Automatic annotation (TrEMBL):
Lineage: Bacteria, Bacillati, Actinomycetota, Actinomycetes, Pseudonocardiales
GO MF annotations, alphabetized: 2 iron, 2 sulfur cluster binding; iron ion binding; monooxygenase activity; oxidoreductase activity, acting on paired donors, with incorporation or reduction of molecular oxygen
InterPro entries recorded: Rieske_2Fe-2S (IPR017941), Rieske_2Fe-2S_sf (IPR036922), Ring_hydroxy_dOase_asu_C_dom (IPR015879), Rng_hydr_dOase-A (IPR001663)
Pfam families: Rieske, Ring_hydroxyl_A
Superkingdom, taxonomy of origin: Bacteria
Coiled-coil stretches: none
Cofactors required: Fe cation
Protein name: Rieske 2Fe-2S domain-containing protein
Keyword Ligase attached: no
Domain (Rieske) ranges: 62-169
Record's keyword terms, sorted: 2Fe-2S, Iron, Iron-sulfur, Metal-binding, Oxidoreductase
Amino acid sequence: MVFTELPYDAAQKAGFARAMFDHIENRTTDLADEVLEVDPRVYSDPELARRERAEIFGHVPILAAHGSELPNPQDFLTVRLPNNEVVLVRQPDGEIRGFVNVCRHRGARLVMDDAGSRRFFSCGYHGWTFAGDGKLRAIAQEQTFGSVDKSCLNLLEVPVEQRHGFVWVVDSAAGDVKIDVAEWLGPELDDALTAFELDAYTCYTTGNFDEDINWKVLMDAFLDGYHITATHANTVAPYFYNNVQDWRQMGRHGRVVSARKSIDKVRDRDPSEVDINRHITIAHFIMPNMSILRQPDHLEVLNFVPAPGKAVGTRMQMRILIREPAVTDEQKARWDKNWNILMAVLRDEDLVVNRALQQAVSNTDLRPLLFGRNEVANQHFHHWLRRALDDPRHWG
Ligand code: FES
Ligand SMILES: [Fe+2]
């Protein structure tokens, strides 16, 4: 493994080691103040789903892509977001702009490909043509169409910003919405992501998984360090401690440090003398729907995109980001193996449990769901969502 050093000073690294040692020794984990009750209908209520799209996803930056997925001018990607399908287009100056993927004539889906490189986008229905900057260039047989102001028929645009190597979008073309990723992350998380040098990474693989599961069920599954033993007995449980988490709230967002079982080899040592990097994983949870999990030699990025127009449906996206582009067969084999392990864990374990959970919470007779004091990151997520919907001006 090629380890990337942890970007923390010696005192912080010793702090992580001490926190993990103490929790394992005492069979503890970081705790919330009390058990939280959550109405199971948060996973199925259509009205709540509508409000989440309008009041949260229509206002805050969410992950749309990694910059390395569209490296050159004229490269494009189509990305399904909660409110709109968006076409991201790399401009000649390196900026990325995003357009709602709908032809301004009669509403055909303009770009049918997932990705590619094009100077113009020509609609397959009647042949109207738009440039890479969204401008309407040509109306087919314009002399017969009648008089319209072409300058008012450009593609609808959503705010886009590149930061930390990612492409972020606010999923609204309302025009009065701005994007400010640093503000959204807040200074502590923004500094933490800068220290990770995220823009030095490249995206090795992306996978999309369309599931009949509410997006919060899936976000909950990845905030949760309490299910490893029961759900993942046959895969990762031998390598990770269950229910051992160091939680830090970072404004709206949060960070969880977890221990690998390999930490047992160094637990009798002085925390300040241990190379803790190889024995922990660090996950940053970015509200509302993203997680960046730092393994010692790569990053796993997950995001959960509510399917348009329904409560029970999510496109889950998974990415592996690596430091050095994989060129040789040997390098590719190594990352393919990582990907296949992740897929097995996800497909055969997490998704099986969570599909069934989604069906179970559709029963008629239910009582509140319980999030224990140990499920502190999940509690933060549900509290934050409630606050954001109660007062969208502050978003927690
Ligand atoms: S709908 Fe696109 S050209 Fe007619
Ligand atoms: Fe899991």
